[in-house]
Write a structure and sequence with these properties.
Family (chain C): Belongs to the binding-protein-dependent transport system permease family.
Largest sheet of chain A: none
Number of strands of chain C: 2
Strand content of chain A: under 5%
Chains: A mainly alpha (313), B alpha/beta (325), C mainly alpha (325)
Shape of chain A: elongated
Membrane topology (chain C): Multi-pass membrane protein
Order of helices and strands of chain A: HHHHHHHHHHH
Strand content of chain C: under 5%
Oligomer: heterotrimer
Distance between the termini of chain A: 40 Å
Order of helices and strands of chain C: HHHHHHHEEHHHHHH
InterPro entries (chain C): BPD_transp_1_N, MetI-like
Strand order of the largest sheet of chain C: 1-2
Helix content of chain C: over 70%
Number of helices of chain A: 11
Number of helices of chain C: 13
Largest interface: A-C, 38 and 44 residues
Largest sheet of chain C: 2 strands, antiparallel
Subcellular location (chain C): Cell membrane
Radius of gyration of chain C: 24 Å
Distance between the termini of chain C: 10 Å
Radius of gyration of chain A: 26 Å
Helix content of chain A: 55-70%
Protein name (chain C): ABC transporter permease
C-alpha cells in the first residue's frame, strides 16, 4: 500500500500553503550581508580603500614631490608638524632631516610598501596555489615531495628565511620580493592543498575527468574556483604579512634602496632622531604602516569568519 | 503520595537569529517515587530540551520561559544558580547519550568520580575514592581499582556508559534523567545497560525519566509513556495501554513503523512526510500535514484532553474506537 | 614510546642533513664561496692558502664533505671582523638572547592565558571584544615600530626605564644572566615586552578559540550536571583540555621568538645573537652569518623534536596509544 501523499490527505483540506519564498538571495548578496555584520570590518574595508586610493593618487594629491631635489630646502629640515617653511608652505606632519615634507613622503612611501607587499603576496599566491593544486590533484609522490618542502619551509620563521636569502643575494627590491615569495608560498600551498584534496573527490571533478578534459583545464577551470574561499582569507592576511615583513627588512637596512623608500625605510631614517625628541620623523610613517596592516587584518579576520564553513549560521 | 517531580506547562524557547524556536511548548507530566517515565519522540521533538530544563541546563540562546518544575514540592524555576548546583548530581542526576563525549578525555576516571562526591559532601579523598570504587562494582565493572586509574578512551562504549551510570548513582539521587543512554551503543550492550539501570532504580527507589526515540526500548522499562511531537505532548498514559491501544495517530504511526511488527515481505510502514521545522510551524496541529485523519478542524490547535482516566491526548480525531490496524 | 622517539630522532636528523645541504649550496654554489668565506682584505697569497685550506678547488661533493666534517668538529669558520671562531662568538651571545626570549615567552603566557580565558568565557562582553581587537593590534603592529614607540614613551618622555643595552649580570650555572640583578631587570623589561607582543596575541587567540570550542563539549555540560562548582569546571575541565595545544604552540613559537629577537635586539642594542647577525650582515662578515644560520637551524629542529616528545607525554590519548599497541 502506498503511503498517502500530502494532497490526498483528506477531503476539502487545501494543501499546506507554501511558506512565502524568501527574497532572492544570491551567494554574493549573502556574502556581503554576512560580511557587513561586523561594522568594524566594514569601516576597516572603507579605510583600506581610502589608503589604496591615496597611494595610487600620490603624485596628484601629495603637496610636494619628495624626490624632486629642486623642491627641497634643507633649511626646512627637522621641522615639527604644523610649522611653516621658508617659502610659506605648511608642513602638516613636519619634515625629515633633508627638509622633505613628511606627508608627501608617507604618501609615496605607501605606494612602495603597498606595491611590494601586494605584489610579492600575489606572486606567492600564484606559485603557492599552483604547487598546492598540483600536489592535491596528482597525489602520490608529487604530493609527498611538495608537502615535505612546505613543511620544511613552514618550520622556519619568516624573518629567518628572509634574512638568509638577503644575506646571500644582497639588498634591493627584487631580492626583497624573492625573499617574501619564498617565505609565503608555503601557506598558500598548504591551504589550497587541504581544500583541493576534499574537492577532488567530488563528483564534478570525476565528471570533468570523464569528459577527457585536459589536466590543466580541470585544475584551473573546475578545481580552483571551488578552493578559493580559504585562499582569499589566507591571501588577505598574507598581504598584511608581506607589507610588515618588507617594512621590517627595510628598517633593518636590508630592503628597498634609499632612492625609493618604503614606509619601513622612512621609519628607519627617523630612528636616530627619536632620542632627541623629534619623534614625528618615525612616528607618522609608523602610524601609516600600522593603520594599513591593521585594516587589512581586520578585513581578513571578518572574511575568515564569514567564509568558514564550520561556523555556518 | 506527593510526586517526586511535577512539571507544569513547561515552556522553553530558543531565541535564534532566524526566529524563536519553541522547543518545549506547554509540557506537563508528573512522576511518583520509584516510577519510570518514558519520554518518546523523534529528534527535534523537544524531549532532550525537556530533560535539560529540569536540571536548569538549557544554554543560551535557549531559556525556560514559562511553567513550573516542582521537585518534591519545590519550584526549581525559582532557584538561584548556587541552589541549582547543589541539586545537580545529588538530588537529580543525568546520564547523557554519548559516553565518549561526556567523560573528559584528559582526566582519569577516579578524578571525575571523586570530584562528583566532593562537590556535594565534605569527606576525605580516601572515603570518596572508596565510594567511587563501590559504585563501579555496583554497575558491574570488573577490577574496579585498575579501572579507576584509567582514562576514558581505554574503556569500551558500554563500559563508559556504566561509569556514567555509576557517577549518576553516587549520591543516590531521587531522580535520574537518562537522555538516550543506549542510542550510541550496540544492540547487545543496550540490553545489558537497560537491565542494569532498571535493577538499580528498583533497588534504590529512584525515579527515572528515560528519553528515547525508540519505542521498543521503553516498552519493557517504563511505567508511563509521554509521546512528544514538535515540542508538545501529544499522548500520555500507562505504557501497556498506550502501546496496545494508541489514541493519537502519531503514536499509532510510530508503533506501526517498528520493524518487528511487520509481516515479512511487506513494505515497512512509514509515517509520510518529515518533522516540520520548529521555526515555521504550520498553524493548528503540528502533525496535520502527515496525519491520515486530518481535516479542517485540525487548523486549530488541539488542547490536551482526557478521553479516559489516566490517558491524555492532544488530538481532534483520536482512535477512540478500537480499529483494525 | 621509544620506537616513536627513535623514529622522530631519525626524521630530525634527516632534516638537519637537508638543511646543511641547502646552506652549503647557498654558500658554495649560489653565492661565491671565495667572497663569502675569505676575508676581503686577504692578499693573493693568503687567498690561495685559504682556498686550499677550505678545499675550494675541490669538486663540489668533496667540498660538502669537508664542510660537514668541519661542522661536526665545531669549526664553522672564522669571523673576519673579530678574528675569532664564529661558533664561539655566537655561543657567547646566546645567553643574552635566550634570556630575552624566555622573558618574552613568560610574559606572553602569563598575560595571554588569563586574557584569552576571559575572552572565551564571555565572548559577547565589551571587555572581550576589546581584548580581541587588542590581539589583532598585537600581531599587526610591526615589532620594530612598537619598540621605537616604547623607547619614546618610557625612556625618553617618562624616563622610567633605560632605552638601550643589557643591564649588569650575575652568574648562575656558569652563565651570566641579567635578570638576577635589579638594574638588569630594568633593562630587560622593555625589550621583553616588545618581543612578547606578537606572542601574547597568539596566546590570547589560541586560548579563546580553545575555550569557545571546549565549552560547547558534552563533557563540560556533564561536569555542570554533576553539580561541580563553576570554578572547577573552568579551571580543571576546560583549562586542562586547552593547555595542551596552547603550550605546544607556544613552545614551537619559541624558536620563532628567538629568530625574531633580531629586530628587538637591533632597536634596543641588546647584545645577543640577533644583534650579532645583523651587524655581521652589514659588514658582510659571512662566516658568522653561516655559523649563525647553522646554529639556529639546529636549535629549531631540536626544539621541534622536544616539543613533539613533550606533546606525546602530556596527552594521555597519544601516550597510551603506544602502550596498548
Amino acid at each position: 500500500m502506498t503511503p498517502p501523499s500530502v494532497e490526498s490527505t483528506a477531503l476539502g483540506v487545501p494543501p499546506l500553503q507554501a511558506a512565502a519564498a524568501p527574497r532572492e538571495e544570491t551567494p554574493l548578496r549573502r556574502f556581503v550581508s554576512d560580511f557587513a555584520e561586523s561594522r568594524l570590518a566594514v569601516v576597516a574595508f572603507a579605510a583600506f580603500v581610502l589608503i589604496v586610493l591615496a597611494a595610487l593618487l600620490a603624485p596628484v594629491i601629495a603637496p610636494q614631490n619628495p624626490y624632486d631635489l629642486a623642491q627641497l630646502d634643507i633649511m626646512d629640515g627637522r621641522l615639527p608638524p604644523g610649522s611653516v617653511g621658508g617659502a610659506g608652505f605648511t608642513y602638516l606632519l613636519g619634515t625629515d632631516d633633508q627638509g622633505r615634507d613628511m606627508l608627501s613622503g608617507i604618501l609615496y612611501g605607501l605606494r612602495i610598501s603597498l606595491a611590494v607587499g601586494a605584489g610579492s603576496a600575489f606572486i606567492a599566491f600564484c606559485a603557492g596555489t599552483a604547487l598546492g593544486l598540483v600536489a592535491a590533484y596528482f597525489g602520490g609522490r608529487t604530493d609527498t615531495v611538495i608537502m615535505r618542502l612546505v613543511d620544511l619551509q613552514l618550520s622556519f620563521p619568516a624573518i629567518l628565511v628572509a634574512l638568509m636569502i638577503l644575506a646571500f643575494l644582497g639588498k634591493g627590491i627584487i631580492n626583497v620580493v624573492i625573499a617574501i615569495v619564498v617565505v609565503e608560498w608555503a601557506y598558500y600551498a598548504r591551504t589550497v592543498r587541504g581544500t583541493a584534496l576534499v574537492e577532488r573527490r567530488r563528483e564534478y571533478i570525476e565528471a570533468a575527468a570523464c569528459l577527457a578534459l585536459s589536466h590543466a583545464r580541470i585544475v584551473f577551470r573546475h578545481l580552483l574556483p571551488n578552493c578559493l574561499p580559504p585562499l582569499i582569507v589566507v591571501g588577505t592576511m598574507q598581504v598584511a604579512r608581506a607589507i610588515a615583513l618588507e617594512a621590517t627588512l627595510s628598517f633593518l637596512g636590508l630592503g628597498v634602496p634609499v632612492t625609493e623608500p618604503s614606509l619601513g625605510l622612512l621609519i628607519a631614517n627617523g630612528y636616530e632622531y627619536l632620542l632627541s625628541g623629534r619623534y614625528w620623523i618615525s612616528f607618522y610613517p609608523g602610524i601609516a604602516l600600522l593603520v594599513t596592516i591593521v585594516v587589512i587584518n581586520l578585513v581578513g579576520d571578518q572574511l575568515r569568519d564569514v567564509l568558514n564553513p564550520r561556523l555556518r549560521r | 503520595m506527593a510526586a517526586t517531580l511535577e512539571v507544569r506547562s513547561l515552556r522553553a524557547h530558543f531565541f535564534t537569529k532566524a526566529g524563536v524556536v519553541k522547543a518545549v511548548d506547554d509540557v506537563s507530566f508528573s512522576i511518583g517515587e520509584g516510577q519510570v517515565l518514558g519520554l518518546v519522540g523523534e529528534s527535534g521533538s523537544g524531549k532532550s530540551v525537556t530533560g535539560f530544563s529540569i536540571l536548569g541546563l538549557v544554554d543560551p540562546p535557549g531559556r525556560v520561559v514559562g511553567g513550573e518544575i516542582l521537585f518534591k514540592g519545590r519550584d526549581l524555576t525559582k532557584l538561584s544558580e548556587e541552589e541549582w548546583r547543589r541539586i545537580r548530581g545529588r538530588d537529580i542526576a543525568m546520564i547523557f547519550q554519548d559516553p565518549m563525549m561526556t567523560l573528559n578525555p584528559v582526566l582519569r576516571i577516579d578524578t571525575q568520580m571523586i570530584e562528583t562526591v566532593l562537590a556535594h559532601e565534605k569527606v576525605s579523598e580516601k572515603a570518596a575514592r572508596a565510594r567511587a570504587r563501590e559504585a563501579l562494582v555496583q554497575v558491574g565493572i570488573p577490577s574496579p581499582d585498575e579501572r579507576l586509574r584509567a582514562y576514558p578512551h581505554q574503556f569500551s562504549g558500554g563500559m563508559r556508559q556504566r561509569v556514567a551510570i555509576a557517577i549518576a548513582l553516587l549520591h543516590r539521587p531521587a531522580l535520574i534523567i537518562a537522555d538516550e543512554p543506549t542510542t550510541a551503543l550496540d544492540v547487545t550492550i543496550q540490553g545489558q545497560i537497560l537491565y542494569e539501570v532498571q535493577k538499580l532504580c528498583r533497588e534504590m527507589g529512584t525515579s527515572l525519566i528515560w528519553i528515547t526515540h525508540d519505542l521498543a526500548v521503553v516498552a519493557g522499562l517504563a511505567d508511563e509513556i509521554c509521546v512528544m511531537y514538535a515540542g508538545r505532548i501529544v499522548e500520555k498514559g500507562p505504557v501497556d495501554q498506550v502501546l496496545d491501544a494508541p489514541l493519537h495517530p502519531y503514536t499509532k504511526g510510530l508503533i506501526g513503523s517498528v520493524p518487528s511488527r511487520n509481516v515479512r515481505g511487506q513494505k515497512l510502514a512509514q509515517i509520510p512526510g518529515m518533522t516540520p521545522s520548529l521555526l515555521s510551524l504550520p498553524p493548528g496541529c503540528a502533525f496535520r500535514a502527515r496525519c491520515p485523519r486530518a481535516d479542517a478542524a485540525c487548523l486549530a490547535e488541539p488542547a490536551l484532553t482526557r478521553p479516559r482516566p489516566g490517558r491524555e491526548i492532544r488530538c481532534f480525531h483520536p482512535h477512540l474506537v478500537d480499529e483494525v490496524v | 614510546m621509544t620506537v616513536y622517539l627513535i623514529r622522530r630522532l631519525m626524521q630530525s636528523a634527516v632534516v638537519v642533513l637537508a638543511m646543511t645541504i641547502i646552506l652549503f649550496l647557498g654558500v658554495y654554489a649560489i653565492g661565491d664561496p671565495v667572497e663569502i668565506l675569505i676575508s676581503p682584505d686577504a692578499d693573493q697569497i693568503e687567498r690561495e692558502r685559504a682556498i686550499a685550506a677550505l678545499g675550494l678547488d675541490q669538486p663540489l661533493w668533496l667540498q660538502y664533505l669537508t664542510f660537514l666534517e668541519n661542522a661536526l668538529r665545531g669549526d664553522l669558520g672564522r669571523s673576519f671582523v673579530f678574528n675569532e671562531p664564529a661558533l664561539r662568538l655566537i655561543l657567547q651571545k646566546m645567553p643574552a638572547t635566550l634570556e630575552l626570549a624566555l622573558a618574552a615567552t613568560l610574559f606572553a603566557v602569563l598575560l595571554g592565558l588569563p586574557l584569552g580565558l576571559w575572552a572565551g568565557l564571555r565572548p559577547e562582553a565589551l571587555s572581550s571584544r576589546v581584548i580581541m581587537a587588542g590581539s589583532i593590534l598585537g600581531f599587526s603592529l610591526p615589532t620594530f615600530w612598537v619598540g621605537l614607540m616604547l623607547i619614546m614613551v618610557f625612556a625618553v618622555e617618562l624616563g622610567w626605564l633605560p632605552s638601550t643595552g643589557r643591564g649588569p649580570t650575575a652568574e648562575f650555572l656558569g652563565l651570566h644572566w641579567s635578570f638576577l640583578t635589579l638594574e638588569g631587570l630594568r633593562h630587560l623589561v622593555l625589550p621583553a615586552i616588545n618581543l612578547s607582543l606578537f606572542k601574547i596575541s597568539l596566546v590570547i587567540r589560541l586560548t579563546r578559540a580553545g575555550v569557545r570550542e571546549t565549552v560547547l563539549m558534552d563533557y563540560v555540560k556533564f561536569a555542570r550536571a554533576k553539580g561541580l562548582a563553576p570554578r572547577r569546571v573552568i579551571f580543571v575541565h576546560v583549562l586542562k583540555n586547552i593547555m595542551i595545544p596552547v603550550l605546544t604552540v607556544t613552545a614551537l613559537e619559541f624558536g620563532s621568538t628567538i629568530a625574531f629577537s633580531v629586530v628587538t635586539e637591533s632597536i634596543f642594542a641588546w647584545p645577543g645573537m640577533g644583534k650579532l647577525i645583523i651587524d655581521s650582515i652589514y659588514v658582510l662578515d659571512r662566516p658568522v652569518i653561516v655559523a649563525y644560520l647553522m646554529i639556529i637551524v639546529l636549535m629549531f629542529i631540536l626544539l621541534n623534536f622536544v616539543v613533539d616528545v613533550m606533546y606525546s607525554a602530556l596527552d594521555p590519548r597519544v601516550r597510551l596509544q603506544d602502550q596498548r599497541g
